[in-house]
Design a protein that fits this description.
The protein is α/β, with parallel strands linked by helices. Helix content is 34%, strand content 24%. The structure holds uridine 5'-triphosphate (UTP).
């Protein structure tokens, strides 16, 4: 197999997670567990399964737990060995051997666009992926792998999109686009959080992107919004007006785990599929006497 065209992935994880306070006061949102695994580990595993092994995590203050999670834990390994908990030991070791991570600090939470810009020197002059840990995608073929295949056909940036009907659309960046083949759209414009009646389509941008290095030039030019944040959508929008830029409607189910309801939905559905507890959990749910 030839070398993957996309070798690097950026994980912006320096946000404050205000939708999940107080749980995120002293621990990163990315470390909230879905059943028994932190959110960020699902996204790391998706990245590796897509053939990308170089990961940089953009962190901020209070995010040390992320680094510790992917590091060796001698004490814990020793203890598990001593107690003969070999299955757990194997899993703990596997996590620290997943891949080599790089870390960079975003000193102030100046927005997603700014977080991507902080990784510029590491990314250098090659196309790269950006994955948001809030978005957990359950798919037969990993979502990022599907997107790399689209990138390889068009050699242009690709954002993951999904249809959202109704007023919910105003929580997303939304594309104006023409279909070019099944599930692939050429984007002419993007609008961040439009009013439902002003949304240019029902296709919302989710937290998977394949970008080209020219995004950095745009990010440097992008003015902060009224909250003082540099938005990735603004820079992508400027780029989509200058060069081919695509949206890909991925196959799979996406959960917004940065939001309480989305997180709970993912928890229930992942628990129902989890080898250890699915049976007991299913029984428990069936016996719940839910009132209207
Ligand atoms: P969100 O919009 O979900 O913001 O960021 P948030 O701060 O994480 O969470 P809420 O909305 O306050 O609850 C989208 C992604 O961009 C990262 C976040 O970590 C998340 O993965 N991000 C956001 C940064 O890395 N830096 C920032 O300054 C802002």
């Amino acid at each position: 197999m030839g070398e993957n065209t996309i070798r690097k992935a950026v994980f912006p994880a320096a946000g404050l997670g205000t939708r999940f306070l107080p749980a995120t006061k002293a621990q990163p949102k990315e470390m909230l567990p879905l059943v028994d695994k932190p959110l960020i580990q699902y996204v790391v595993e998706e990245t590796l399964a897509s053939g990308i092994e170089q990961i940089i995590i953009v962190t901020g203050r209070g995010k040390n737990a992320i680094e510790d999670h992917f590091d060796i834990s001698y004490e814990l390994e020793h203890l598990l060995q001593e107690r003969g908990k070999l299955k757990e030991l194997e899993e703990i070791r596997r996590i620290s051997e997943l891949t080599q991570f790089a870390y960079v600090r975003q000193k102030k939470a100046l927005g997603l666009g700014h977080a991507v810009l902080v990784a510029r020197d590491w990314v250098d002059d090659e196309p790269f992926a950006v994955l948001l840990g809030d978005d957990i995608i359950d798919a037969d073929v990993p979502c990022l792998r599907q997107m790399i295949e689209v990138f390889e056909r068009y050699r242009a940036p690709v954002v993951g999109v999904m249809p959202i009907d109704g007023p919910e659309i105003s929580r997303f960046g939304v594309i104006r686009a023409e279909p070019v083949e099944s599930d692939v759209y050429r984007i002419s414009d993007m609008v961040e959080k439009p009013r439902p009646e002003e949304a240019p389509s029902n296709l919302a941008i989710i937290g998977r992107y394949i970008l080209t290095p020219d995004i950095f030039v745009e990010l440097e030019r992008t003015q902060p919004d009224i909250r003082g944040e540099i938005q990735l959508t603004d820079a992508m929008r400027a780029l989509a007006r200058q060069r081919p830029f695509y949206g890909y409607r991925f196959k799979g189910r996406r959960y917004d785990c940065g939001d309480k309801l989305g997180f709970l939905q993912a928890t229930v559905e992942f628990a129902l599929k989890h080898a250890d507890i699915s049976q007991d959990f299913r029984r428990y749910l069936k016996n719940l006497q839910l009132e209207e």
